[in-house]
């Protein structure tokens, strides 16, 4: 009987041994799963320091301003359509045919951008911004002229242009009336744009002059990413900067925003007409402070 019990125990031991490796594997998988859950997830990090580069100046009288050009590649950022003479064309059809003046990269181009459309006419209110798209066939300086039909005045800006890029500029006209915009390089001009600037209603004009906004000042924002290249940055849904704004694809974009209120910083990349790797970061900023948004 004793020998029979011993034989049964040995048989059961042989049967259980094949399950030991399975038990060890299951335990290892559970440990790995726990370690993955415990691993920190990649996230955005804000850092902050004093901003010493801003000079304190008394508020100046409102005047028409033009931002510095922000460079971008046309490929992947093409407009959905182009409006010429009140007629809307698909971008691909327009630039392969003759419905647009100066098609391709061999001509001087100046457009007004609104959403996904490039056009030659827009109507805005005084103090509102208009987005311009400029391109020149040669590297170097180009001249942008804003001509007032009402008082025959001419505002002039000299901008640096790179032929392998297109350039975004933000124009904020403070005067009202009809204006013509022309870009030239050497003796070659672009087609003229027409901009009608309407006066603000009395109540809106009073609301726009907010002394408190002047006192709140500005903050410097820098977006940095080791992984993302060629990203764009919006503030409250409005394009503000890009990785290529300084002509270098280095994962860095800097710009200023109004302080003392919550701003939503949106960072994203374009893949054709699709938006990828989009992230939003809302926070309030203090004046005379430099903030860096570090993205993994």
Uncertain runs are: 1-19, 31-42
The proportion of residues forming helix, as a percent range, comes to 10-25%
Can you tell me the CATH class of the largest domain?
Mainly Beta
Q: How far is the first residue's CA from the last residue's CA?
A: 71 Å
Task: Explain the layout of strands and helices.
Elements: H1 2-16, H2 19-38, E1 45-50, E2 65-66, E3 70-72, E4 81-84, E5 87-90, H3 91-96, E6 109-114, E7 117-119, E8 121-125, E9 130-135, E10 140-148, E11 154-161, E12 166-172, E13 177-185, E14 188-189, E15 193-198, H4 202-208, H5 211-216, E16 218-225, E17 232-235, E18 238-242, E19 252-258, E20 262-271, E21 274-284, E22 289-295
Parallel strand pairs: 4-7, 8-15, 16-22
Antiparallel strand pairs: 1-22, 2-12, 3-12, 4-5, 6-7, 6-9, 9-12, 10-11, 10-13, 13-14, 13-15, 16-19, 17-18, 17-20, 20-21
Comma- or semicolon-separated keywords:
alpha+beta; single chain; 296 residues; Immunoglobulin-like; 18% helix; eight-stranded mixed beta sheet
Quick summary:
18% of the residues lie in helices and 45% in strands.
Fold and architecture overview:
This protein is 18% helix and 45% strand. It has 296 residues and is an alpha+beta fold. It folds into two domains: 45-57 and 210-295, Sandwich (Immunoglobulin-like); 73-206, Immunoglobulin-like (Sandwich), CATH 2.60.40.1930. The strands form four sheets. Strands 2, 3, 4, 5, 6, 7, 9 and 12 form an eight-stranded mixed beta sheet that branches. Strands 8, 10, 11, 13, 14 and 15 form a six-stranded mixed beta sheet that branches. It has a four-stranded mixed beta sheet with strand order 1-22-16-19, with no helix packed on it. The longest helix has 20 residues, at 19-38. The radius of gyration is 29 Å and the shape is globular.
